[in-house]
Amino acid sequence: MKNFEQKIFNYLAARLSPKRFEHSCNVAKLSVELASIYGVDVLKAQTAGLLHDCAKSMTEKALISFCVRKRVKTPNFKALVKYAPQLLHSFAGEIIAKENFDIKDRDLLNAVRNHTLGRPEMSMLEKILFTADAVSYDRKFPFSAKTRKLAKTDFNAAFKAVMRAKMEYVLNKGVWLCPKALETWNFYAV
Ligand SMILES: [Fe+2]
Ligand SMILES: [Fe+2]
């Protein structure tokens, strides 16, 4: 294993629960598979998959103060803090990828940043991570297995199914829907 990968593994192993660590490895695996099918840089896909939840073990309080301290720019920051502070982990993750792992590649940083809410005009790497996160091998719902398979043959259909499932989850729970997620949906759904 190369030094860079080892450093990421060590960082994650020290911070994430075994379940979350396994999830990150599974997201990396599926991201690599999709990247190689669709002509995306596999090393970037692997790194993005491994790092995407690197801030996930932080408490909501720690995430909020981290984002304030680092002046992290997020859409709807006040509402995120109030209604869904856990979603800040993707934005904090981008900063950790930049500062702890010296990642400068904008596309890779965007993939980590946008893996929860998405955004209009995502790159293929961003869309791959967004999709792989939702249907990685550790996700045991029938929807995940079906959509994972679909992603390998008709990526856009799988991507759209993931966006839809994420929206439905929020609506069914009856909780706050981030305008950024709706913006992503509106950009890609029609
Ligand atoms: Fe995440
Ligand atoms: Fe994740």
Explain what the structure shows.
The protein is mostly helical and 190 residues long. The protein has a single domain, classed as Orthogonal Bundle (Hypothetical protein af1432). Helices cover 71% and strands 0% of the residues. Helix 2 runs antiparallel to helix 3, helix 7 packs parallel to helix 8 and helix 8 crosses helix 10. It is globular and about 40 Å long. It starts with a helix and ends with a helix. The mean pLDDT is 97. The site of one fe (ii) ion has 8 residues, from helix 6.
Offer a concise description of the structure.
With 190 residues, the protein is mostly helical. Helix content is 71%, strand content 0%.
Number of domains: 1
Biggest β-sheet: count, sense, barrel? Answer: none
| Total helical elements | 11
Bound molecules: fe (ii) ion
Report the C-alpha radius of gyration, rounded: 16 Å
Mean pLDDT: 97
For the terminal residues, how far apart are their CA atoms? 43 Å
Report the CATH C-level class: Mainly Alpha
| CATH homologous superfamily title | Hypothetical protein af1432
Shape label: globular
CATH architecture identity: Orthogonal Bundle
Helix percentage = over 70%
Order of helices and strands: HHHHHHHHHHH
Per the CATH scheme, the topology name is Hypothetical protein af1432
Give the helix/strand class. mainly alpha
Number of β-strand runs = 0
**Poorly predicted spans:** none
